[in-house]
Amino acid sequence: DHDQPTPEGASGCGAIDFMATTINFIGRQGRELKQIAQQLNIPVDEGDHAEIIKRAQELSEGKDLEFSSGAELRSSLASTAGEESIIRLTGQHNEVTFVVNNQEGTSIDPTAYDDVMQAFNYDRWAMKKAVHVIGHNLTAYEARRKLLAADYFNLATLCVLAGPSLFIVSRPK
Question: What's the pTM?
């Protein structure tokens, strides 16, 4: 239920509040994430895949594992992008699909069907741009690896929050 009170220290966003669980999932379910990514036509380099899984396992084992609280991350986002950048959904969770959106300049309205059906949305095209903006001096190799890590994080978040119950759709360019 989107209307449940946010526990102290949480952000109200499942992706943020379950980040450690998601990183652990990446480390344990790498083969499955790779298969999902490939089915969605996301290119997966074997070396990048192995390094991402290895790093997730190290983080899950406690090496360098330190996450900000959900509330701290939410506060940081609000102070950087403004409170209006944070969309708070209301009502019941009615997500029936997960959309990987590759259509540049577009996004999916998660509540387009009057809350009868909702969608989780991942604007992959925007993540691709963000990788280059955040790491403006990255080599093509580094950018590719960071984008795949973001892809895995988004897919793993879906698995952690929704389990196997959702349809996954790739919206082409």
Answer: 0.83
Q: Could you give the CA distance from residue 158 to residue 93 in angstroms, rounded to a whole number?
A: 13
Q: What is the pLDDT of residues 102-155, one digit of tens each?
A: 999 998 877 676 667 778 889 999 999 999 888 888 999 999 999 999 999 999
Tokens 């699909």, residue? Answer: 97
Instruction: Answer yes or no: are the C-beta atoms of 40 and 170 closer than 8 Å.
Output: yes
Q: How far apart are CA 125 and CA 39, in angstroms?
A: 17
Task: Count Cβ atoms below 10 Å from residue 156 Cβ, excluding itself.
Answer: 26
Alpha carbons 31 and 2: distance in angstroms, whole number: 32
Residues sharing a CB contact under 8 Å with residue 149, sequence separation 6 or more, in sequence order: 48, 52
